[in-house]
Design brief:
This protein is α/β, with parallel strands linked by helices. It is built from 12 helices and 15 strands.
């Protein structure tokens, strides 16, 4: 791959952004990273991604960082103008990612998630319309519709009825996004999601939307309001108290490792399509309930977790979510997952231990 080919990555110091930086640098791309550490503003200093930016700048010769807000139209245009025709792929991961936080500052949430995405799309159309545009959306675009599926309570998890069409592979892209409680975060991500589709379908751009379940890995700056698996593992290692919110701790999430997700971006870039939408997560290959995650972590760390249960669940939170990734696999049959839930948690625990040793 030519050295003058550029991957422009927003949220470049975040979990998926940093994984993308490493992956595409390894493929010979120059990396333009955009990240102004809004995560520390959202969730406090413990969630800052500055450490991740430092590592990128230290370890990747091909990395150039811009501490720019994606809502800053002029600054974003200047970056696109400078690199224009050399931009081969845009990976847009920058976002306000929390239900609860969005309700505190709805205007900030919407301006980042929706307006910021529009600014990036318009500059891509203006300066590099042939580039692949990958967007990390969310399964929250489906609102709480999944909670009305026929769910069965098992000993340690909720599970969908075995006769339902979603049982074998999970929830596919045919689920409606209408007439449902999204949370304000879900609504702002719906706006961005539809914009990315529209720039593909209306302008013929090579856009792809990934509606993620739980995206995770050792690069996650997990916080109480976002990044449940990484934050849970952090509490397991440090002994910090963790609150399990609602659904008897039996709520189920599929978890996909950041490497497996970014590898999916790479497959899209090899053979881009127009305005595609994919549900993307661990699927049946990698999922767990909260109770199951705690049990696995207690075995890995050989100590009991310090947690308590709160009856009240988060507004709009899913009881059961497993992504059906078959549409993506049908378009890109050579893509495979390499991390299951056990391997993911072992890696996060080891990484968390190292961070605390070096702190």
């Amino acid at each position: 791959m030519s050295k003058n080919k550029i991957a422009l990555i927003t949220g470049s110091a975040g979990l998926i952004g940093a994984e993308s930086c490493r992956f595409f640098a390894d493929k010979g791309f120059q990396i333009i990273g955009i990240d102004n550490d809004m995560r520390s503003y959202f969730f406090g200093e413990e969630a800052s991604t500055q450490w991740s930016r430092n590592l990128l700048e230290k370890n990747l010769e091909a990395y150039k960082h811009y501490s720019v807000d994606i809502r800053d139209e002029q600054a974003i245009e200047n970056i696109f103008k400078e690199y224009s025709s050399d931009i081969s792929i845009i990976i847009h991961t920058a976002a306000q990612p929390s239900h609860d936080w969005a309700a505190k500052e709805p205007l900030t949430d919407f301006s980042i998630n929706a307006n910021g995405t529009l600014i990036l799309l318009e500059n891509a159309r203006k300066y590099c319309p042939e580039a692949t545009f990958v967007f990390t959306s969310t399964n929250k675009v489906y609102g709480d519709t999944p909670n009305y599926l026929p769910l069965v309570e098992l000993e340690k998890r909720w599970e969908i009825d075995t006769t339902h069409a979603y049982y074998e592979h999970g929830i596919d892209e045919s689920m409606s996004i209408d007439a449902t409680l999204h949370s304000l975060f879900g609504a702002s991500k719906v706006a961005a999601d539809v914009l990315v589709q529209e720039y593909g379908k209306y302008f013929g751009m090579k856009t792809a939307v990934f509606r993620g379940g739980c995206l995770t890995g050792p690069g996650h700056s997990g916080a109480a309001l976002h990044g449940f698996l990484a934050y849970l593992a952090k509490c397991a290692v440090t002994g910090d108290h963790y609150k399990v919110l609602g659904y008897k701790g039996k709520q189920v999430r599929d978890n996909i490792h950041s490497y497996d997700l970014v590898n999916a971006f790479w497959h899209v870039h090899q053979k881009p399509r127009t305005g595609e939408v994919y549900n993307m997560g661990g699927g049946r290959y990698s999922n767990c309930s909260m109770q199951e995650a705690i049990e696995i972590l207690e075995k890995i760390t050989s100590k009991k977790m310090n947690y308590s249960y709160v009856e009240q669940n988060r507004v709009g939170d899913h009881i059961w979510w497993i992504s059906d990734t078959n549409k993506f696999k049908s378009h890109y049959p050579n893509w495979i997952q390499t991390y299951d839930i056990q391997k993911i948690l072992e890696e996060i625990v080891e990484s968390t231990k190292q961070k605390h040793i070096n702190a």
